[in-house]
Amino acid sequence: MKEIHNIQFTPDGQAVFEKIMGIWPPILQQRKQDQILTMLRMLMASRRVKVADQTLVIEATRYVVPKSYDPFFHMIQDMKKFKRRILDTFSDIKAYNARPVRVHRWKHPPAPKKKRTCATNPRVVAFCASPRKHGNTDMLIDKALEGCRVHGAQTEKIYLHDIDMGFCIGCRRCKEPKAEQICVVKDDMQKVYQKIIDAQAIIIGFPIYTGREAAQLSTFLDRWDGFERYMFKSALQPGRVAMVIGTWGYPYPDTYDHVIESIITILSLHKIETVEALSACGFEGMLHGLDENHRGVIAHYPRELQKAFDAGYALVRAIP
Ligand SMILES: Cc1cc2nc3c(=O)[nH]c(=O)nc-3n(C[C@H](O)[C@H](O)[C@H](O)COP(=O)(O)O)c2cc1C
Questions:
Q1: Most buried by CB count within 10 Å: which residue of 63, 114, 127, 140?
Q2: How far apart are CA 243 and CA 294, in angstroms?
Q3: What is the distance in A from the centroid of ligand 1 to the CA of 50?
Q4: Of ligand 1's atoms, which has the minimum distance to the CA of residue 212?
């Protein structure tokens, strides 16, 4: 039994605690240790447990780190399963084809019962932040747009990678009291701003790159700051709804939900209510989430794609 800062550990609890601390560089270790030990103390007190074992240490750590640490926990909890589900898909085509590809449609608010008051052919504009045409994000967006059209919407899809879109230059001219344009940077965003203003619903689909949204989407959303005018007045009035689609390689459908949450929060800062969200996972391995024809493997999972269709249909129904 070992004691660390007045907490008693079982040998396996201590071993896993040391392993966990080893993943951070020294500059982060102290603060991570403080956070984990505080959480551990709270869990032990609430459960009247005197000694921290491996399970409790992992539980406490999971409360203080984002879900994107999942691969690490899966590795230390069950190395065989980790190898079968993740590592083997990079070297063995059979394992690649058998890996779980899943779409999770988030629990959504019930569709409004009232009669539709919005335009007969509402406009839905989708933004694809993946540079891969016919990749998984792209196909999920297409399916969602199909659902929108069945409900009478006019749809358009824009590939962020293809448009001329510069970075926000931080000039803050958009916040000046008499600023006329949304943004002074002269590029395709001028047309895109108008499309957003004219739309009743927005779809944003993006792949996870290095644990967060692909840079195309970060750049795009920085440019949305132009909608925020002098004294926090917004150029966008409430009334638009959105769908957010996140896709990633790791084969668990909640690993990067916090990234989707952050996109939903940014949209809500712009007075857009996200009513549909999809997490889609399993797009990695030896063919990098594509099939032999270089198309997203999601094409082989019609039941998963149907969820995007249903969400698209519901998105249009949710337009106020
Ligand atoms: C540069 C890069 C970084 C990536 N980082 C991650 C990652 O951190 N976690 C993960 O699960 N998948 C990661 N992936 C895999 C992509 O998220 C996954 O293949 C994605 O669903 C591709 O979408 P697409 O088919 O629409 O292009 C990464 C892919 C690339 C190209």
A1: 140
A2: 26
A3: 42
A4: 8
Question: Is the CB of 207 within 6 Å of ligand 1?
Answer: yes
Question: By residue range, what is the domain housing residue 194?
Answer: 101-317
Is any atom of ligand 1 closer than 6 Å to the C-beta of 246? Answer: no
Q: Are residues 57 and 105 in the same domain?
A: no
Would you say residue 81 lies in a domain? no
Of 18, 37, 65, the domain-final residue:
65
216 CB less than 6 Å from ligand 1?
no
Q: What is the SS3 assignment for 63?
A: helix
Tell me the two tokens of residue 245: 């689609």
Q: Look up residue 234 and give its two tokens.
A: 């917004």
**Do 41 and 173 reside in the same domain of the chain?**
no
Q: Among 12-16, 107-111, 192-196, 271-275, where is mean pLDDT lowest? A: 107-111
Q: Is 251 in the pocket of ligand 1 (CB under 6 A)?
A: no
**CA-angle at 282, arms to 277 and 287, nearest 5°:** 130
Give me the CATH number covering residue 275.
3.40.50.360
Tens-place pLDDT, residues 102-129: 999 998 777 666 555 566 799 999 999 9
- Reported as type and span, the H/E element at residue 263 is helix 257-269
Residues 6+ apart with CB under 8 A from 286: 89, 90, 91, 92, 93, 96
Per the domain annotation, does 87 fall within a domain?
no
In a domain, 229, yes or no: yes
* 284 CB within 6 A, ligand 1: yes
Residue range 245-293, pLDDT digits in tens: 999 999 999 999 999 999 999 999 999 999 999 999 999 999 999 999 9
